[in-house]
Automatic annotation (TrEMBL):
Protein name, UniProt field: ATP-dependent dethiobiotin synthetase BioD
Family: Belongs to the dethiobiotin synthetase family.
EC number: 6.3.3.3
Record: residues binding substrate: 35
Oligomer and partners: Homodimer.
Length: 200
């Protein structure tokens, strides 16, 4: 299995979701493009219960910004052609940066990485007032591109009517709901990994 974890924005819970998926599948992990610190690869390694294989990012930048901007700050340009899928016989969890249409450069977007490698998508939706619109716009773009979507991970304080209308209009299934936790720990990650593993 290879899943590309994307979201309706940044700070949505992609990294915690990725750690849960890595734990559930005992998968390898790859963040193709990383902007800012802490590095998500390190966070995932700290959150899982086993020595996860982490593939190096194709691009890493210091500035915590949109990748096209982080690259520019270092006088670099991200080239989609130079992003190559790590080869592994194991399951692989791939984490995007920010949301779907976050620019890599003046032509390409984060979601083009998933499209290039024909990866199945897991969409993280963090629940806030405004998330319905942001989710349905993201869904429109995923559908316009004919991308295969495994389902949605809801993150945060439950809002049953927001969740229902998102599932209704998207046609996607709910894979998991992550509650607002006081602290994200390896034990919490294991708890959610148990819940999601049979649906992956
Ligand atoms: N359900 C939750 N309960 C408590 N804290 C959470 C929860 N989900 C996310 N967080 C915290 O919110 C912050 C942002 O989450 P996370 O790093 O997973 O976002 P992201 O979508 O991966 O962001 P990026 O676009 O930078 O990769 C982190 O500090 C994380 O620990
Ligand atoms: C630095 C941050 N944590 C992410 N890695 C990148 C978020 C880019 C968001 C760009 C945008 O949508 O305006
Ligand atoms: Mg992240």
């Amino acid at each position: 299995m290879r899943y590309f974890v994307t979201a309706i924005g940044t700070d949505s819970g992609k990294t915690i979701t990725s750690a849960i998926l890595v734990e559930a599948l005992k998968a390898d992990y790859w963040k193709p493009v990383q902007s800012g610190y802490p590095r998500d690869s390190e966070t995932v390694a700290d959150l899982v219960s086993f020595p996860v294989k982490i593939f190096p990012s194709s691009y890493e930048f210091a500035k915590p910004a949109s990748p096209h901007d982080s690259a520019k700050a270092e006088n670099k340009i991200i080239e989609l052609a130079k992003i190559t899928l790590p080869q592994t016989d194991n399951h692989l969890i791939i984490e995007g940066a920010g949301g779907i249409l976050v620019p890599l450069n003046d032509q390409d977007f984060v979601i083009d990485i998933a499209q290039k490698f024909d990866l199945e998508i897991i969409l993280v939706v963090n629940l806030y007032l405004g998330c319905i619109n942001h989710t349905l716009l993201s869904v429109r773009e995923l559908q316009r591109r004919n991308l295969k979507v495994k389902g949605i991970v809801f993150n945060g304080v439950s809002n049953p009517e927001s969740e229902r209308i998102i599932l209704h209009h998207s046609g996607y299934q709910e894979l998991l709901h992550i509650e607002k936790e006081a602290l994200i720990t390896p034990l919490i990650v294991q708890k959610y990994a148990e819940k999601i593993k049979n649906i992956l």
